[in-house]
Amino acid sequence: MTDLCFPSFHASSTLEAAEQGGIVAAIMADAPLTCPGQDPSVSDLLAVRPALSMHAVDGLVLEDVPLNAIADALGTPTWVMSAGTLRARYRRLATAFEGTDTPVSIHFAVKANDHLAVLRVLAAEGAGADVVSGGELRRAMAAGIPACRIVFSGVGKTADEMRLALRAGIAQINVESAEELDLLSAVAVDEGLDAPVALRINPDVDAGTHAKITTGLATNKFGIPYNRAADLYAHAAALPGIRAVGLAMHIGSQITRMQPYRTAYAKLAELVRTIRARGLAVDVLDCGGGLGISYRDESEGAPEALASAIHTELGDLGTRLAIEPGRWLAGPAGVLLSTVILRKSGYDGMPPFLVLDAAMNDLMRPSLYDAWHGILPLSPTEAFAPVEQVHVVGPVCESGDTFGHDRSLPHMKAGSRLALLDCGAYGMVMSSTYNARPLAAQVMVDGNRWSVIRDRQQTEALWAADRIPEWVDTALLPAGGGL
Ligand SMILES: Cc1ncc(COP(=O)(O)O)c(C=O)c1O
Ligand SMILES: N[C@@H](CCCC[NH3+])C(=O)O
Question: Which of 87, 107, 218, 274 is the most exposed place for a label (fewest CB within 10 A)?
Fold first, then answer.
């Protein structure tokens, strides 16, 4: 399908946009050429993010909306999602899987971004959902995705969650252990319903990704050991309340090379043959998610290459196929707007700290995985100011509250606004209120329209659900309650 196209602004490169006359002249003179190992420059970051462009007057623009307009209206930190990017990416993914004998159903991994508006945009394109909790199941259904298009993954579903899924008419439950299978059988019998089950297999394949987000190694908690899978499948097929429909696999996240997928899918194909040799039917293969994006300068995983890997390894088995992408669809569609609270000088000779009003409680990925997110100033003059080395941190009381050490960024000062890039997946959903910081506001843009899709949390809401037991002796508090 087509890429996003914004005739008035769209800059596939800053040079092209400058030729269109909308870009400050300084861009071309000041844009540094990136050397291997160096941080990508502002121009580099813009060149591969078609929905973002830099304008002489409006500054950084997402689709057709100047991000300063959003920050003026709502303050920061504020998340912004691009509906056009979600659609464009979904269409490219769907197109990559079209035109083959075996159709592939796409189930958006709701854990990546569970906002109802995001789910609605993707559902309108044809997406189903992959959920990992009763909450996600209910969110997906609240967004209008019918249960018959939802698969339920996860290593620890409760009996109540199983009940909810069965009553809703879930398409498929991906079971991850013998113990879970027994529990599901009991729940299904109790409900008088049949549970459509795919066994999630752990192929013991290294996805070559960060240790905290790999899921297909023998040491990971996920999935059923490969060598026990055929026996368990036979057991499942004989259990009351269970309808064994197929197999599932998900080997990890942020995977940019195809070889791990190929290796894992080849093992899956072998397992299908083994199970069929026992006279059992395997009708569905759920190939999981995990396709990676380009945060810094890595090549993003290509849907066409994934489609080819799936069809090569699994296409001749006569099964239905499914995938569960999250990050690839939503990651590049979101930014987090923030303001520099202050520039704090470092020790002599050491880089200063840019202290932002966004923190690890908002965007947790850098603290959790040392993840790298691009940073772009919102101001057109700052975007191409001379580059300096800085540490970019949040105000939370943890040294881990750091968005980047020794980052090469255009000079910014207190009050400067910036966008943290590629925050549409595993951004807002992983936020917390640590340090009593309210959850940030959220906005969706679509062409030249924008709307608030979640209000900034009121500070009072942070303690609205707190209850002080009446036996707490308030008489011991000092008069006036202060220090
Ligand atoms: C079972 C399952 N499916 C799909 C996904 C989505 O992964 P990604 O966002 O990397 O595509 C995950 C998360 O890693 C997952 O655990
Ligand atoms: N939350 C992780 C990915 C984990 C995916 C869920 N299994 C991230 O931000 O990269």
Answer: 218
The CATH homologous superfamily for domain 83-330 is: Alanine racemase (3.20.20.10)
Q: What is the pLDDT of residues 228-285, one digit of tens each?
A: 999 999 999 999 999 999 999 999 999 999 999 999 999 999 999 999 999 999 999 9
User: Which parts are annotated binding residues?
Assistant: 290, 324-327, 365, 369, 398, 426
Q: If pLDDT is split at 50, 70 and 90, which confidence band does 208 have?
A: confident
Which of 151, 201, 327 has the most ligand 1 atoms within 8 A of CB, as the residue to mutate? 327
CB 333 within 8 A of CB 86: yes
The pTM assigned to this predicted structure is 0.92
For the four alpha carbons of 243, 245, 249 and 253, in that order, the dihedral sign comes to: negative
Q: Which residues of 210-219 are buried (b: 16+ CB within 10 A; e: fewer)?
A: eeebbbbbee
Element containing residue 220 per DSSP (H, E): none
Distance 135 CA to ligand 2 centre (A): 18
Looking at the CA of 207, name the nearest ligand.
1
Ligand 1, atom 12, lies closest to the CA of: 289
Secondary structure class of 468 (helix, strand, coil): coil
Confirm whether 397 is a catalytic residue. yes
DSSP per position, 361-401: TT--HHHHH-----EEESSHHHHTSPEEEEEEE-SSSSTT-
Give the active site residue among 35, 148, 397, 423.
Answer: 397
Instruction: Specify the amino acid at residue 475.
Output: A
